[in-house]
Design goal:
The chain is α+β, with helices and mostly antiparallel strands. It has one domain: Ribosomal Protein S5, domain 2. A five-stranded mixed beta sheet has the order 1-2-5-3-4. Helix 2 packs parallel to helix 3.
Length: 128
Amino acid sequence: MEVINAIGRRKAAIARVFVTPGTGKIVINKREFDNYFPSTILQYVVKQPLAKLDVTEKYDIKVNLDGGGFKGQAEALRLAIARALVKMNPEDKSALKSAGFMTRDAREVERKKPGQPKARKRFQFSKR
């Protein structure tokens, strides 16, 4: 019984995934999957790579999630699961890549600049 591990990142979130053959149970930070992500939309996002390959009930997944918000965490977890599935079966890479699950979304929050209220917003200009 081999354990496959992978990592996924999105915004400030980092997901470390450990995949083993099993019954489809997902445990995140020692909490149940439905408890950690109560939103059905985020549950769908996380399970997308598994559903694409039709292996939802085939693997048990243990996850360490850290940083970011719930949306970033869900997308980081999706990338980590996709990478782990490719490690298990390299032939699946083309299907996952065409669906866009193998691409790391590199967009990060732009830093706030001094003399401005936000990253790009300026204070109101006064001519007089």
